[in-house]
User: Which sequence fits this backbone?
């Protein structure tokens, strides 16, 4: 999770609650890290600066670090509680937000941005991508991941009149859908919508892959992994784009 989705005291309190989950699963993290490592190339030739915007407790960045050896990873989050935990895992963890005054970095300073499981929490995702685009160098890489509204099981749930997984109607409790955790999702994307959204923000989409969701019941996990071969059906969307 990341920067405060809005200057609303209830939302700020929600995201500062240590009980709110801030990690999103190892399989997604590793797939995304491999995509970024392939895009950046070996650090021995050109070490790069990677901003993990919405680093949460730093678990994802720490998991990805061995695949990005030699590149500098800087964790960024709005939540002070998350940053306290992130600093036990990351060398660099800085407070910053995508709203208000923006990120505490100069324009064009970053070679890549990890934006993992964040955009679904934001009130103003357009402004967020504008700020990410500002801090990226020309040709810099954006690695964005987010839950898929059109995941294979969500299609079946909607047909049955059940609220889709990942969608939420309250910050206090789960209503009308499977699951137990309230995580504060405000927006959800299909593969097509995510491509169009990122392109409209001034990026060129390089590719998209799927990733499994750690919350899928064990008997269905093989099917969830199989769905990753078609991103439009996968649980999690992994999008790679570059700044034009």
Assistant:
């Amino acid at each position: 999770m990341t920067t405060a989705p809005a200057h609303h005291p209830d939302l700020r309190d929600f995201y500062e609650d240590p009980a709110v989950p801030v990690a999103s699963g190892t399989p997604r993290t590793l797939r995304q890290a491999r995509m970024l490592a392939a895009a950046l190339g070996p650090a021995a030739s050109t070490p790069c600066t990677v901003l993990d915007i919405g680093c949460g407790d730093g678990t994802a960045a720490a998991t990805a670090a061995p695949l990005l050896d030699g590149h500098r990873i800087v964790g960024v989050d709005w939540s002070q509680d998350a940053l306290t935990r992130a600093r036990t895992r990351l060398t660099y963890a800085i407070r910053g937000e995508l709203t208000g005054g923006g990120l505490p970095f100069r324009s064009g300073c970053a070679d890549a941005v990890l934006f993992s499981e964040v955009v679904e929490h934001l009130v103003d995702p357009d402004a967020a991508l504008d700020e990410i685009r500002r801090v990226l160098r020309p040709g810099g890489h954006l690695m964005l991941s987010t839950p898929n509204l059109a995941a294979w099981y969500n299609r079946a749930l909607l047909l049955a009149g059940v609220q889709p997984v990942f969608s939420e109607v309250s910050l206090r409790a789960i209503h009308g859908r499977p699951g137990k955790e309230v995580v504060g999702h405000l927006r959800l994307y299909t593969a097509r919508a995510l491509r169009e959204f990122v392109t409209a923000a001034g990026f060129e989409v390089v590719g998209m892959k799927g990733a499994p969701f750690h919350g899928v019941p064990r008997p269905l996990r093989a099917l969830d992994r199989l769905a990753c071969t078609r991103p439009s059906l996968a649980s999690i969307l992994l999008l790679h784009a570059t700044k034009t």
User: Anything to note?
Assistant: Residues 9-147+189-243 form a domain with the Rossmann fold fold (CATH 3.40.50.150). The chain has eight helices and seven strands. The chain has a mean pLDDT of 92. The chain has one domain: 9-147+189-243.
